[in-house]
Description:
The complex is a heterodimer.
Chain A (H helix, E strand, L loop, with lengths): L8 E6 L11 H11 L5 E7 L5 H14 L3 E6 L2 H14 L7 E5 L1 H5 L5 H19 L8 E4 L4 E4 L3 H12 L4 E4 L14 E2 L4 E2 H14 L3 E4 L2 E9 L2 E8 L14 H5 L3 E4 L7 E4 L1 E2 L11 E2 L5 H5 L4 H5 L12 E7 L1 E4 L3 E3 L16 E3 H8 L20 E8 L14 H16 L2 E6 L9 H10 L3 E4 L2 E5 L11 E7 L4 E7 L1 E6 L1 E3 L3 H8 L26 E3 L9 H21 L1 E4 L4 E3 L19 E4 L4 E4 L9 H5 L5 E3 L4 H11 L6 H4 L2
Parallel strand pairs in A: 1-2, 1-3, 3-4, 6-7, 6-18, 7-10, 18-29, 20-27, 21-22, 21-27, 22-23
Antiparallel strand pairs in A: 5-30, 8-9, 11-12, 12-17, 13-14, 15-16, 19-28, 24-25, 25-26, 31-34, 32-33
Chain B lengths: L5 E6 L5 H7 L4 H8 L1 E4 L8 H6 L5 E7 L2 E3 H13 E7 L1 H5 L1 H4 L6 H9 L15 E4 L2 E4 L3 E6 L9 E3 L6 H15 L19 H4 L45 H5 L16 H11 L6 H8 L5 H6 L12 H14 L1
Parallel strand pairs in B: 1-2, 1-3, 3-5, 5-9
Antiparallel strand pairs in B: 4-8, 6-7
Helix pairs in contact in B: 2-8
Amino acid sequence: MTENNQEKIGVYVCHCGTNIAGVVNVQEVAEWAASKLKHRGVVIAREYKFMCSSLGQELIEKDIKELGLNRVVVAACSPHLHEKTFRTACANAGLNPFLCEMVSIREQVSWVHTDKVAATAKAKAMIAGGVERVRYNSPLEPLMVPINPATLVVGGGIAGIQSALEIADAGHHVYMVEREPSIGGHMAQFDKTFPTLDCAACILTPKMVSVGSHPNITLLTWSEVEKVEGYVGNFTVTVRKKARKINEELCTGCGICQEKCPKKVIDNVYEAGLGYRKAIYTPFPQAVPNRPVMDVENCTYYEKGTCKACEKFCPTNAIDFDQQDEILNFEVGNIVLATGYDLFDARRVTNYGYGRLPNVFTSLEVERLTNAAGPTTGNIVLRDGKTVPKAVGIIHCVGSRDRNFNNYCSVICCMQSLKFAHLVHERTGATVYNFYIDMRTAFKDYDEFYQRVLEEGTLFVRGKVAEVSDVPRTEREKGKLIIQVEDTLVGKQRRIPVDMVILSTGLEPRKDAKEVAKLFGISCSVNGWFIEKHPKLDPIATMTEGIYIAGCAQGPKDIPNSVAQGAAASARVLGKIEQKQIALEPIRASVIEEKCSGCRICNGLCPFNAITFHEDRMVTEINPALCQGCGTCVAACPAGAITGTGFSNDQIMAQIEGLLMLNVDQELAVA
Amino acid sequence: MTEKPKFAMYWAASCGGCEIAVLNIHEKILDVDANFDVVFWPVAMDAKYKDVEAMEDGSILLTLFNGGIRNDENEHIAKLLRKKSKILVAFGSCANEGCIPGLANLSDSREIVHTAFNTISTDNPHEIYPMTSYDVPEGEIHIPKILPVLKTLDQVVDVDYYMPGCPPESHQIAAVIDLVVDVLHGKAELPPKGTVIGAGNSTVCDECKRTRNVKTIKSFQRIWGVAPDPSLCLLEQGIPCNGPATRSGCNARCPTAGAQCIGCYGPAEGVADYGARLISAFASVIDAKDPQEIDRILDGLVDPTGQFYRFNLAGSLLKAAVPAWKAESTHEKEKA
């Protein structure tokens, strides 16, 4: 079609309100395209306030029908947002959707430039590129592939649990992978939950049990995902099931091994370093599955070669010292990532003294202190294990809203601090001070809880704490921790002596969030949280189709929001499963067999395993159903024997020439 | 046939290897003489430019043009022969893609002249440089003026066929002569204009007998430093063989002999930029994730331009480096 000059191209320039029109002279751009690109096949160029509106789309549809357009260029926002919209509009008017090309003059022009003249010139160049490119676009048809109804849920915290249960209850199989020995996540460590103060375990454990016993859920704890291949509808997942050193079939979870194990180990995970566990252990009594794991780094047998107390006492001979890691492979259609968060390491704020001053505690430590099943059976005491504090200071925003650490708000800390204030007050009768920058108690019933804590007599000091010190200046401060703070409401520096300091530590992305993101083919934000497809309209999907995110992995949030996201992610998954098949973008690579010499450079490169080599004919072939159109092999093929639809050499070279304005009517272009 | 059709061959910026390759077809050269009237072939016979200028336009049936367009004499003869010839063939790598002389496009012409006449390899204490014109009693004489950028033949004039190779293989030349003779006798038809003749349509790998596996490269080796496995793909052994991107037609002579392909047959069909293709291909199979390790492996390619653009620089997308382009744009302005 390119050769016989039959193109009838329509160019549509969007104002996007003032988003584009505020910087780019949209009218000038449209008029320019109509005149200077006329000889390149542009028969109409229009501008419109909102091209994505139904009226804007109708404009395109009408022109296709009335002017017989056979190519469309829409200069508007990023194709991520509205490519589908405009392709659908073209399809509605009977034009193959892949003959529509988008030019991003919002993200790539108006939002990144302030010089209006230069931005307008750039918009023109980009449209010229789009017009040249679209001349080489060819009509494409999507490929339909079936969707595997099984789902992988990574992370067994409350978000993952909710997601898994929703999908499993709907009758589809779920593989849940959790790297700790038990599911439950951070919520299992909490005592009370704000603002209702119901017991975390009481509301969580029934759900954990449901996961453990659900016929549709394969629960893989003490396991990690090692590899993910394929694409939406057809992922192949490789999971390493770490050796528990326990035969899970034989084990009944009786707990005798833990009882008999002579080795005590400080529990830095579940008990936040405040309590002990054994070298063979389940992290907590309600653990699901109720199967212990052996800590081979601390087990006496692995250290000295003798002991085996657990083996001697195990009534079912379930102990297996020789057990090795197991590699499992299975196929799923969709994946939900609910990998949670790490707690900010309070040691990093050296002026608050955590790790140096014994009676400075982190929020997680206090969760364990207040927990009836915790190391102090719910008694809030100082590090010595017995002294009940008479005055307690709770510091908000530790590691959050602080340009030295994290700029973001960790969302849950205000409410968590209020909860601690209430619990400390209730259990010890101590004077409680809360040091806050701003009080953030949005969401249902939260502010009411704040009012309640105020009424209980907790003292609130508005100001960022400068320092926690144990160096007294007065008699009154002796033997105390002194909180140095600027009270911004009074406008004065204050020194407040207390017995105990609680640091309301913020939330951080998992240490390995970046690697996990890479494993699943998604991205992390600057702060390290997984990036959602759209911050407002698609907070649980990602840019990779079939991969969803839920809970704190996406950003700090409380339990109700985590649960809502878990459920929302499963709704999306169920929607996909219901479709039974999925239309794959026809953007994919193919091999021109005559040009392929079988050099095999591409053979090991495909992230989707779409490439096979035919030894007999010495040629490479690409499976169109597996190909995701990433272009890796196209770029690698030294012979130019692999072409990518939608990104052919001709298209790209033409676009570059367009960008360089080589094809613009130069006589007119001087104007 | 009352009169034999006319044949011409010319060398512009080239080494003369193409001429030798033509003579290397042995007794087949007699077929050329039998079927053609050789009217212009500076290396083989005496002729004056004015004789060619006097010929009727289009009177030469076949001209094999080798060499790149380096100076104004080359340019003049290229344009002249284009006018006088029915079929103009870009013969050999220089005319096709610039070849070794094209590497000079990395510098501007002043630097080229300076390098040739006054660097450590040349003893020139009086800084004597060649002049383009000189007054003698008989009048002013000239030597050709060097152009800012070496161009391929088709960057200067319209070309009918392309025959790659440095030089083209003699068996391929013989085959082309057979074809032309057959066409003359009405036994065959000429291929469509713009066709690459005397070469294959895939890559050197297609003609290479070495065993190939999925590739991963942990280090690049220079050919003098290793004794390569005689039956395994050279690239897999870390020897940077350009075969995967190079047009077939030579019967994989170098890899068969144990030396890597250096790419003299130019880019395979449909490859827009030979060097970029190869860089992308090599980079794709480097077996490392750590940036420092990758750097270490890449350092094994000691001369990237020589590796990737030895023959194709003038014919590549970029064609020349910035200093040469700047001089070229000044030159164009002066001409205008």
